[in-house]
Amino acid sequence: MRRPAQTILLLLGGLGLLRISLLGDLYLRYVKEGLRPLLIASGVLLLLLGAMDAVAYRRGRQEGHEPSGSPEHLGHDGHDHSTLPRAAWLLFFPVLSLLFYAPPALGAYTASREAPEAVTEQRHFDPLPATSPVPMTLTEFTGRVQQDRRGSVEGRSVRLTGFVTPDERDGWYLTRIVLSCCAADARTVKVRIHGAPALPADTWVAVTGTWHPGGTLGTGSAPAALDARTVDRIDRPVNAYKDDLPLATTR
User: Fold this and answer.
1) Which of 16, 48, 97, 213 counts the highest number of beta carbons within 10 A?
2) Dihedral class, residue 155 (left if φ above 0, else alpha if ψ from -120 to 50, else beta)
């Protein structure tokens, strides 16, 4: 790779990072929300390095420095060692993808191929509010079902939100994909839904219902499952990679 190409690579990389981090929320398909400032800083740094490299290259040519490939750049074997290997040209593919290609969002296809993540052990659970239905995250619901020995969810109407993941067996899954840092460490949280037909995969829904009995409530034998009473379509949240309770607007 020649010096001008290296400069272009730096500039394109900087522009790509700034495009996904400044123009909308596309960066959320790569990293978690809190890393946005680092992406912006990295993009600015790459642009500065590219600009400095371009200035240095132009100044070198004006001062009459030997271009790459001259005898001063040849090794003992007669080959030019001043340039990077040809494989370095492959770096242009991920850089150009930042500028011209948006990867599909993680969804039902990914979730159907992963086992649900085990919830973190928790010993204390606050009493549930008197509200009915009780809004919960999928993680909280699973934790209360499998760890709360007081059985606080038994008979209570709860409301959960997520996207549809079809299943070949009985029912379907309400799913959330959560990023700890970036897309590479994504984990899946699932709650099986009974009593309602599955909508198309990746449809975002809010489900109201009660715990589907099975096993011993408050232990790992209890299934994270819900008998659905209502299933309402909702808009996909801006940040779909968090297990939270976004404002659910039915449609």
Assistant:
1) 16
2) left
How many helices (H) and strands (E) in the chain? 5, 6
Amino acid (1-letter code) at residue 62:
Q
In contact, 160 and 212? CB cutoff 8 Å: no
- Give the closest residue to 69 by CA, choosing from 85, 81, 87: 81
5: nearest Cα among 70, 57, 66? 57
Give residue 8's pLDDT.
Answer: 84
- Choose among 191, 126, 189: nearest CA to 158: 191
70 confidence band (pLDDT: 50, 70, 90):
very low
Q: Which two tokens stand for residue 246?
A: 């976004």
187 sits in which H/E element: strand 187-194
pLDDT higher at 24 or 193: 193
Segment 242-249 mean pLDDT: 67
Residue-by-residue DSSP string for 217-237: TTSTTS--EEEEEEEEEBPPP
DSSP E strand boundaries for 126-199:
134-135, 158-166, 172-178, 187-194
Report the first-to-last Cα separation within the chain, whole angstroms: 53
- Enter the pTM of the model: 0.71
